[in-house]
Specification:
By secondary structure, the chain is α/β, with parallel strands linked by helices. The chain has helices at 7-34, 74-84, 87-104, 121-125, 129-140, 153-157, 161-172, 189-194, 204-210, 214-229, 242-250, 267-278, 284-289, and strands spanning 40-49, 55-66, 70-72, 114-118, 147-152, 176-182, 199-202, 233-236, 255-256, 265-266. It contains 13 helices and ten strands. The longest helix is centred in the first third of the chain and has 28 residues, at 7-34. The chain binds ligand C2E and magnesium ion (3 copies). Residues 24-278 form the EAL domain.
């Protein structure tokens, strides 16, 4: 199949495969020193209350500035780190860095908001994951009530016993859990019911279609009702327009996250936004300019 179109196409395909493979190797090598070289950093994307517009928390998103490749997207390097096992070290750095940041931010009081950390399925399957997380948070004196974890729908629904146990134990320790990218995986609804997760994050692809067609709106409305009837809060991901936000409010969605209200922000900018909110000086327009 690769050969259709003749010999030149085949060569071109081979050459581009090599380029992709070389880049993957460069990324894997680079990741081995990224932590110690200080090349990783976090951005925080706020989660807003749909009704009041107040900030209820933020999601930590990893960033990597590679010395030669420049900014490399987590969508590219996380899968490579998962295959190589480096995700364990990288994931621990993320938790550690969130804890360090939380300790240095006076604006964030315990109980006032939660910072969400994305957990990979490789992390969740590691037998040490809960002990590792508790060791890091205790060492930094960060209470579980200040953190939550996002796991994708596919990972959450896998009936892997160790995954299930890790999720239960994290919840028992006081961390909340969110199902990320809901709607893109395959969940069994009965499984969803057994599973006491606090938040459901509706995937950005559904929000993009929300105001486009009646069916797009109907699907999101049904997901919100389903989540609420299971006692979960709903977060809409990737909210980019006023029309989407208005409809989400109407549908009683709980929280929104997306470029309309805030892009992922560097720590200092996130804290500045929190301060402006606390001072009550944030209008929708000011927020959009931020
Ligand atoms: P995710 O957890 O679903 O994160 C949401 C992604 O959507 C982020 O991309 C965010 O920047 C982007 N986004 C937010 N609002 C909008 C919007 O309004 N429009 C559009 N077009 N995009 C929006 P990002 O930061 O590139 O991260 C991509 C994925 O990489 C994340 O998807 C998550 O699966 C993974 N990731 C990021 N940080 C970590 C981490 O620390 N650990 C692990 N294991 N995975 C991470
Ligand atoms: Mg996420
Ligand atoms: Mg997501
Ligand atoms: Mg998503």
């Amino acid at each position: 199949q690769v050969k259709t179109g003749g010999r030149n196409n085949y060569r071109f395909f081979e050459a581009s495969m090599n380029a992709a493979a070389r880049r993957a190797i460069e990324i894997q090598r680079g990741l081995a020193v990224a932590v110690t070289n200080g090349e990783l950093f976090l951005q925080y994307q706020p989660k807003f209350d749909c009704g009041s517009g107040s900030i209820l928390g933020a999601e930590a998103l990893i960033r990597w500035r590679h010395p030669a490749l420049g900014l490399v997207s987590p969508a590219e390097f996380i899968p490579i780190a998962e295959r190589s096992g480096q995700i364990i070290t990288v994931g621990q750095w993320v938790i550690e860095e969130v804890c360090r940041n939380l300790r240095s931010w006076d604006a964030v009081r315990p109980g006032a908001m939660r910072i969400a950390i994305n957990l990979s399925q490789i992390q969740l399957r590691s037998p040490q994951v809960v002990e590792d997380i508790l060791a890091i948070t205790e060492r930094h004196g960060v209470p579980p009530a200040m953190l939550m974890f996002e796991i994708t729908e596919t990972v959450a629904m896998q009936n892997a016993e160790e995954t299930r146990r890790a999720i239960d134990r994290l919840q028992q320790a006081g961390f909340e859990m969110a199902i990320d990218d809901f709607g893109t995986g395959y969940s069994s609804l009965s499984y969803l019911q057994e599973f006491g997760v606090q938040q459901m994050k509706v995937d950005r692809s559904f929000i993009a279609k929300l105001t486009e067609t009646a069916k797009g709106g109907a699907i999101v409305a049904a997901i919100i009702r389903l989540a609420h009837s299971l006692g979960m809060e709903v977060v809409a991901e990737g909210v980019e327009t006023e029309a989407q936000l208005a409809l989400l409010k109407e549908l009683k969605c709980d929280q929104t996250q997306g470029y309309l209200l805030a892009r992922p922000l560097n720590g200092a900018d996130f804290v500045a936004l929190l301060d402006r909110h606390a001072a009550g000086t944030v209008t929708a327009a000011a927020q959009l300019e931020a």
